[in-house]
Each structure stands twice: as structure tokens, then as C-alpha cells.
Write a sequence for this structure.
């Protein structure tokens, strides 16, 4: 098992990477990396970030 970081948003736990991508799209960027390359960042309150165990699903 691995640990993943999630963002608590609107009653859901969203994987941190997915949350960053979604927010970047909202600001008109094609990806979070594009947003960072343009000199921006997304500020997330540390109290909204949780770390949970995550089972890696193996492909059958």
C-alpha cells in the first residue's frame, strides 16, 4: 500500500494532482505544469490536505 495526498473539497477527497489540474483548467491553462511554467502556483491551505493509504490496483 502507498500513501497519497488528497484535497478536501466540497465534501470529497480529490487526489492532489487532479485538484491542481482542475484548478489550472479553471484559470485557462491546459495543465498544472503550464501554470507553473508561466510563473504561477496554486495555494492550498495545509488543513485541507490529507494523506491516506491507497491501494494500488493491479491490472488483471
Amino acid at each position: 500500500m502507498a500513501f497519497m495526498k488528497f484535497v478536501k473539497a466540497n465534501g470529497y477527497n480529490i487526489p492532489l494532482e487532479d485538484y491542481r489540474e482542475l484548478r489550472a483548467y479553471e484559470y485557462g491553462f491546459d495543465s498544472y505544469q503550464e501554470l507553473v511554467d508561466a510563473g504561477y502556483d496554486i495555494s492550498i491551505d495545509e488543513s485541507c490536505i490529507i494523506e491516506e493509504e491507497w491501494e494500488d490496483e493491479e491490472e488483471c
Remarks:
- The chain is about 30% helix and 30% strand.
- The two ends are 18 Å apart (CA to CA).
- The beta strands are 2-9, 12-15, 49-54.
- Helices lie at 16-26, 32-37.
